[in-house]
Amino acid sequence: MTKNKFDNRADKLGESWDLLNKEGRKIGLKHRGEPFKPGEWHSLVNASIFNYQHEILMQQRSFNKIGRPGEWDFETGGSVLASEDSLTAIKREVKEEVGLELNFSEENFVETFRNWPVFDNWYVIKADLSIKDIRIQKSELEQAKFMPFDQAIKYLSSNYLPYLLKAYKKLFGGENA
């Protein structure tokens, strides 16, 4: 894996986000680092990326990240920027963090998780990929690897496991796909 050419800063404190109400309607603008008041929300996007060998892309978060440094995760993503929709945001985040230009569409959308102050829009996609296709952004990730889905399950939160199993079946079909 080689480093990509994108911005090397993690947790970009100059980012601006659309400030949303609890119904998801825009009510203003928020800058990263500003505290959220009750009733203020913003959007995130995350994607789980599978290859045709039924492996999921696992990424170890940078040790310099503010949240969950060094943890292994099965999602690539981040904040939806001001005036950006979630499809544009997920394409941008995946390109920035792992160097992939994937053709996300509404069909790849799985679920929106609400956990104040965020709406987390989650996507899944299957593509013809191997680890040599991945170009990590070192400010965001320490390393990445494809892992067989049945082995990756041990890294997953029990809260998200039912959703990921549903998405896996959607991508690969059947109970034992």
From TrEMBL:
<dbReference type="GO" id="GO:0016787">
    <property type="term" value="F:hydrolase activity"/>
</dbReference>
<keyword id="KW-0378">Hydrolase</keyword>
<dbReference type="InterPro" id="IPR000086">
    <property type="entry name" value="NUDIX_hydrolase_dom"/>
</dbReference>
<protein>
    <recommendedName>
        <fullName>Nudix hydrolase domain-containing protein</fullName>
    </recommendedName>
</protein>
<dbReference type="InterPro" id="IPR020084">
    <property type="entry name" value="NUDIX_hydrolase_CS"/>
</dbReference>
<dbReference type="Pfam" id="PF00293">
    <property type="entry name" value="NUDIX"/>
</dbReference>
<dbReference type="InterPro" id="IPR015797">
    <property type="entry name" value="NUDIX_hydrolase-like_dom_sf"/>
</dbReference>
<feature type="domain" description="Nudix hydrolase">
    <location>
        <begin position="40"/>
        <end position="169"/>
    </location>
</feature>
